[in-house]
Amino acid sequence: MSTNEEKTIIQSLQDNSTRRQAFEWIVRQYNQQLYWQIRRMVFSHDDANDILQNSFIKAWLNIEQFRGDSKLSTWLYRITLNETLNFLQRQKEQTSLDSPEGSIANQLASDPYFDGDETDRQLQEAISQLPDKQRAVFTLKYYKDMKYEDMSQILDTSVGALKASYHHAVKKICDFFNAID
Fold first, then answer.
1. Most CB within 10 Å of its CB: which of 4, 43, 111, 114?
2. Per-residue DSSP letter, 145
3. pLDDT per residue over 73-94, tens digit each?
């Protein structure tokens, strides 16, 4: 989205008479991007849809607090990432990863929307074993090829810390694949 388009959308969001239309445009514009960002972290279609819906609800309820200090996409990614991390934390508290029904491999095998091959399933399993912050950094960099500077705004972390987190995540994923061989 160009800077001028973003300014127009932000102005529309601030006007009560055009807020709903502007927000509907935002949902259409960012729906797929945010869905896949969530999906790569939680692996379940239904859970990703629920988190996405909750993220858009939270954005709608807090739209008046958005002042345009950051890009609209950054603000949406931050809300979505926080919702995803909160979901993952609740999931950890509710389900032991050692239980058969909690394993990522079983979740992906039973998910009718998962269409990856064995290597993709293994990659998802390796990603699932990363700490939440490393998982977030890895998915933003690997799948979205997001710049560290943009991630820094979303995650409220220094670029150096993000680079270190990504490096550690890649090493853990490589170690996971080396252990399989």
1. 43
2. -
3. 889 999 999 999 999 888 877 6
Taken as a whole, the chain contains a residue count of 181
128 token code pair: 């699932």
Q: Is-contact 11 39, C-beta < 8 A? A: no
DSSP single-letter state for residue 181: -
Residue 106, pLDDT above cutoff 60: no
Reported as half-sphere exposure (CB side, CA atoms, 13 A), residue 177 has a value of 13
Residue 175 C-alpha from the chain's centroid: 24
Q: Which two tokens stand for residue 30?
A: 């960012």
> Rounded distance, CA 163 to CA 160, Å?
5
In this structure, the dihedral spanned by the alpha carbons of residues 79, 27, 131 and 159, taken in order and rounded to 10 degrees, is: -70
Q: Which two tokens stand for residue 99?
A: 């239980």
pLDDT for 101 equals 44
Neighbour-count burial of 33, counting CB atoms closer than 10 A to its CB (0-12 exposed, 13-18 middle, 19+ buried) = middle
Alpha helical stretches, state H, the chain: 3-14, 19-42, 45-61, 72-94, 104-110, 118-128, 132-142, 148-155, 159-180
